[in-house]
Fold this protein.
Amino acid sequence: MYFLTQDSIRQGLAKAQQQETSLNLGDRTAYVGASDIGQCTRKAILSKTSPRAPSLQDLIRFARGHLAEEILASALQDVRPERQVELSADIPYCWACHWWDFYTPAEPAHCPNCGNPIHLVPIKAHCDFVFDDDLVLECKSSPLVGIQDSWEMQLQTQMLLYEHCLQKSSQGVILVMDLAGGALQITDPYVLDPNKVGDIIRRAITIWKGVVEASSAPDPESLDLKTEPGPLCGWCEYLGTCPAFKGEELPDDLVTFFEQYQHLCRAEKAAKAEKDTLRDQVLAMLEPGKYVAGDLRISLFNRSRTTTDIKALGSLLEELGQDITEFQNTSPYQVLDVKSA
Ligand code: SF4
Ligand SMILES: [Zn+2]
């Protein structure tokens, strides 16, 4: 049983994941990937220049993503889409005057603007699935709230590179497979948004410049890199040194207090997930009615809820020359957010 320790499992998973990454994604430090463009700039730069050994939790999360792709691949075995399609390009960029052109037919050696040498910023996308009708599918394995924008940016980058490399346009969808809950969500198809192209290119250039700067810095984590705090910060390996989360040092007794608070938050989350699973099982077993289970008296009934379509209401008010904010009140409330670095 000596091999069944948390650490041996972590090491085994890390090795398997490293092999798979280098097979499918190559050397991720040598280019800016579509997922880098979708995520926090500081994290994207540091993950290339100051890599940390992933935690067991991270590794299980990565493996879960891989599992979702395998499940989907088996569901699509009759359609046989291409998998892990690599698309790559270089952006000619001038470090002196910040000129760039993604669509130049021949890569210039010198900047047409200022005459300084041109540098090439390498960008790559790995599309999870590509179908015969030019549909690109990005598969995700957890319905994390609030990161749709980041996923969309990743998909837009894939569609941009698809158009650039294959000279044809594509559509893209994001499929979210919740492995724990067994639920599946598929977005409506997206097309490449021309207004996002400049953003994508500028983000890629910023990340690449950061990578070049951080590669020669003695302590990359102390550099003043652009931070973009969001829901994924709780999973970020660079949270401990992140300037976005700098604050006043608390005394030791408060440290214990917050550790306990954090512990209870986790327990609450786990209990909620367990409670929701039990509730789904009960709802699948019973019809509405009244039931007795030992000392428990149970009623299961349908209730209706009324919702207001705020977007439609906003449009209607706009037609009437009014703004919905005139009918809204804002009141302050406190938010306590605790993350573990
Ligand atoms: S903690 Fe958040 S803002 Fe800071 S580097 Fe990580 S992802 Fe970016
Ligand atoms: Zn220039």
Remarks:
- The pocket of zinc ion (ligand 2) is lined by residues 94, 96-97, 99, 111, 113-114, 116 (CB under 6 Å).
- The longest strand covers residues 82-93.
- The helical segments are 6-24, 34-38, 41-49, 56-75, 148-166, 194-215, 252-285, 310-319.
- Residues 248-300 form one domain.
